[in-house]
Design brief:
Elements (H helix, E strand, L loop, with lengths): L17 H14 L2 H10 L1 H12 L2 H18 L3 H23 L11 H9 L2 H22 L5 H6 L6
């Protein structure tokens, strides 16, 4: 007599298979017109490449790409916590200017201070604490702008360029 075998029926699959997901994706791309767009791009590959190269070969495009590259190089040298601090200060300053502009009537202390008011402002510590970063920034900007212009490669790497 044969022995009894233990067999458990595997549960029905409730998850979709990769093939079913691929079919759904293909149908969605077709319904929204992306497949046609992708097919047209693949067929016109050489035409698109020719147009892009011709556009990038213009002096204005080359300048824009170099300027973007310089911007990214400069931003990469600023630690994120410093840049975030600068952006938060800038946001606060813009919001304060906006709030001042939205008021209809100037308050008494917002009118012209006169000579005595200016003397008081010269002794205002909060005002000087707010102005000194701007003054220091202007000094650094002035020093940098007075330097002789150099090619970006020379300025960033110290290597001479040959044209």
């Amino acid at each position: 007599m044969a022995e009894r075998q233990e067999y458990q029926v595997p549960p029905a699959s409730t998850e979709t298979t990769a093939q079913e997901m691929l079919h759904t994706l293909t149908e969605s791309l077709h319904e929204h017109g992306f497949l046609r767009l992708l097919n047209d791009v693949v067929r016109a590959n050489t035409d698109i490449a020719r147009i892009l190269v011709a556009g990038m070969n213009q002096p204005g495009s080359q300048n824009a790409m170099q300027n973007l590259s310089l911007l990214f190089i400069t931003l990469s040298k600023i630690p994120p916590e410093h840049f975030n601090h600068l952006l938060q200060a800038l946001k606060s300053g813009v919001m304060a200017v906006r709030q001042d502009n939205e008021r209809n009537e100037p308050k008494h202390e917002e009118t012209a201070p006169g000579v005595l008011g200016m003397m008081k402002l010269l002794n205002d510590e909060a005002l000087w604490r707010g102005l000194m970063p701007i003054v220091n920034g202007l000094k650094a900007f002035g020093e940098e702008i007075q330097k002789e212009e150099q090619k970006p490669v020379t300025r960033n790497t110290g290597k001479e360029t040959h044209e």
